[in-house]
Structures are given as structure tokens and as C-alpha cells.
Specification:
Layout: H1 3-10, E1 15-16, E2 18-24, E3 27-33, E4 36-40, E5 45-51, H2 55-63, E6 65-70, H3 76-82, E7 94-97, E8 100-103, E9 108-120, E10 123-135, E11 141-144, E12 147-150
Antiparallel strand pairs: 1-11, 2-3, 2-6, 4-5, 5-10, 6-9, 7-8, 9-10, 11-12
Length: 157
């Protein structure tokens, strides 16, 4: 199977956009990711998938913690910043939830301690036990078919 065919097919799955953050040696690091999902309700567990070439991989391995900020529809510039498309002078609205770094103004913030790691293919899956959650009533930033999207206001019947 061609890599491009696989990528195109996976791009047909609409996702939210998150910034994964962690702190190491008093420095906060972040990366944009859409490979995030819930795993278990009891205990509350989530998983993030980090590529083997991402600098965030070793940072989460060392800190053994991560936070997930689900971005709000007007936070596209933050997504691009943490995906490596940095804008000169852009301020990052880091906040804190229970001592974990999060993105202020995001739809939801989920902070976790790593409970297990699984290496699969060219990614590591970090399973995190949820320690705290903060939720706002905002619309999420979405990603579909290689581009950013906004949630339609009409609901399906």
C-alpha cells in the first residue's frame, strides 16, 4: 500500500485539534496532534500517539506526564505554531491546571500521568491516567481532508 493512499484515507476522518504539553526542567514544551482519544471511563484513561522523530517523545518519556488542550475554533494560529509554523512574536497563552501546563482558552484541558507506553510502528502510544479536567463551552477547531474546519451550527436530526 502506498503511504499517500493511507494518509489520504486517514485524512477523511474528521478530528479535533489538540496541543499536547509537558514540562521538563522547568521548561514547557508543546506539539500539535490529532492522534488523541479516550480509552477507559473507569479508571479515566486517554492515549496520545507521538511519532518517533518528534522531540516531544523523549520529553514525555522523561517527565512521565502530559496535558491535552483541545483547541477552540479561533486557535488555528496556536495549532500552526506547535506544528512548527511559528509566527514571530506570537504569544502562547500557557496556563496551568493542577500544576500541568495547558493552553488557556481551549475547549477542554485534560492532564495526565503516564501509566504505560506502547511502541507500535513508528509511534509511541502514551496511556495517561486523567488527574484533572477543565471544560469551556466553546466550539472546537476541526481538521479534515488536510485542512482546518469549523463546526457547522446546524445539528443533524
Amino acid at each position: 500500500m502506498e503511504d499517500r493512499l493511507f494518509r489520504n484515507a486517514m485524512g477523511k476522518f474528521a478530528t479535533g485539534v489538540t496541543v499536547i504539553t509537558t514540562t521538563l526542567d522547568d521548561e514547557t514544551y508543546g506539539m500539535t496532534a490529532n492522534a488523541f482519544m479516550s480509552v477507559s471511563l473507569n479508571p479515566p484513561l486517554v492515549v496520545v500517539s507521538i511519532g518517533e522523530k518528534a522531540s516531544m517523545l523523549s520529553r514525555i518519556e522523561q517527565s512521565n506526564t502530559f496535558a491535552v488542550s483541545i483547541l477552540e475554533e479561533n486557535q488555528k494560529a496556536l495549532s500552526q505554531h506547535f506544528a512548527g509554523q511559528r509566527q514571530e512574536g506570537q504569544e502562547i497563552p500557557f496556563g496551568e491546571l493542577e500544576g500541568y501546563p495547558v493552553i488557556d482558552g481551549s475547549v477542554a484541558q485534560v492532564v495526565c500521568d503516564v501509566v504505560s507506553t506502547h511502541v507500535e510502528g513508528d509511534h509511541s502510544l502514551f496511556i495517561g491516567k486523567v488527574k484533572a479536567i477543565h471544560i469551556e463551552d466553546y466550539n472546537p477547531l476541526l481538521f479534515f481532508n488536510g485542512g482546518y474546519k469549523k463546526l457547522a451550527v446546524d445539528e443533524l436530526v
